[in-house]
Amino acid sequence: MAPKVDSATLVGEWHRSRRIRAGWLIAIVIGCLASSGLVALWSFANHDHFDLLDDPVVANAADRACAVASTALSTTQGLGRAERIVVGNAAIDDLVGAMGALGPDVLAGDEPGASWIADWRSLQGARDDVALAIAATPQAQLVVPLTADGYPITGRMIAASGASCEEAVTLAAAP
């Protein structure tokens, strides 16, 4: 004969099992939310900063290229302005060449890489314009090209590369 079970015991067991299931359900939901939050945090921490050379390969190449360019740009002080510009532009060619040697795939992996190089080319073009203008007007001044929103590209160049290239950018912008 089966043991006698009263209805109060059955109702109590049924409520207890529902509480356990509800507890598990809440734990699973909280676990899923926490996991989603961690994935979002990881994604944010590891995204490519659109305005900073943050790939170590690209950033290290920029540091080295800027150091070489800074040395070349700072050793032109005994030359005339037009000659300083020509020598400085050769240093910019070397910088752009060193960065281009990384290859398009590496540069594409670091958001501002290609535009940073384009800014150097644009600044170099403005330096060429000044070198030509000096023949007619010895006091001709460099006009730093502007970004699409009207700011000097030199600010964007320094912001992208950090302090390691600030000297090179500053020297290049003041021939």
How would you describe what is shown here?
This protein has 175 residues and is mainly alpha-helical. The protein has two domains: 7-47; 56-172. The chain contains seven helices and no strands. Helix 2 (56-74) runs antiparallel to helix 3 (81-100), helix 2 (56-74) crosses helix 7 and helix 5 (113-136) packs across helix 6. The longest helix has 39 residues, at 7-45. It is rod-shaped. The model is unreliable at 43-48 (pLDDT under 50). Keywords: Membrane, Transmembrane, Transmembrane helix. The chain crosses the membrane at residues 24-45.
Topology:
Blueprint: H1 7-45, H2 56-74, H3 81-100, H4 104-108, H5 113-136, H6 153-161, H7 166-172
Keywords: Membrane, Transmembrane, Transmembrane helix
Transmembrane segments: 24-45
Keywords:
single chain; 175 residues; mainly alpha; 2 domains; 7 helices; rod-shaped
Number of strands: 0
Please bin the fraction of helical residues.
over 70%
Tell me the Rg in angstroms: 31 Å
Structural class: mainly alpha
Element-by-element helix/strand order: HHHHHHH
Our measurement of the CA-to-CA distance between the termini, rounded to an integer number of angstroms, reads: 106 Å
Largest sheet: none
- % residues in beta strands: under 5%
- What is the domain tally? 2
> Judging from the principal axes of the Cα atoms, what is the shape?
rod-shaped
What's the mean pLDDT score? 82
Oligomer category: single chain
- Tally of helical segments: 7
Low-pLDDT runs of 5+ residues are: 43-48
